[in-house]
Amino acid sequence: MDLSNRLLEITKFVPKGSVVADIGTDHGYIPVYLVEKEISERVIASDISPASLEKTVEYVNRMKLQDKIQTRVGDGLKVLKPAEVDTVIIAGMGGILISNILEESREVTDTIDTFILQPMVASYELRKYLTANGFKIVEESLAKEGRRLYEIIIVKRGEEIIAKDIYYEIGPRLIEKKHPLLKDFIAWKKQEVEDIIRKLEEASIERVRDRYEDMKKKIAEYEEVERKIEGS
After folding, report:
1. pLDDT, tens digit, 9 for 90 and up, residues 206-227
2. Fewest CB atoms within 10 A around its CB: which of 47, 179, 189, 191?
């Protein structure tokens, strides 16, 4: 089975020969791909939903990979023992939920070498959590499917200093590498904010003035990042 652009981009950051846990695996596409491509020697595929995990079990059995892919029902990293794996993938969840998963199982979290995180929303809040809790963002990427762009954040333990608030929203590694989808990503983010501004303008209520000014400031910050990647 061919992976979607989002899932394929995630697999590019899995260290070869690693032992992986795919948290919230859903159909189990990533675990099967990692084993078939000989990227990972062993994968634990987990999901909080027994019904979702059953799809993974059926897929793994059909591909005859039961000896290399173990399935577990459970909540977040609670399905793992400390140091049981060296790489964890958490994809397709909100950034705040991902932060909670990392925080609720620190005895496991602190033994993991690499986290590959793909927040669907709230990437700002996720980066805030990471940098405040002993994680370093070592790499970032973007994947495009249709009109939607997805952020992928690769994390290790370490210290991270974010120079400006806007870089919690537009990852610093994306800017440093001038990711080919970065301009599209900024344009997408700007459009979201401009839509909010338009609604605030239509509301014309005093209490939304601060929100309006915040959104105008955010547009200016996006444009500053655009100038940076175009001029550097």
Report:
1. 667 788 888 999 999 999 999 9
2. 191
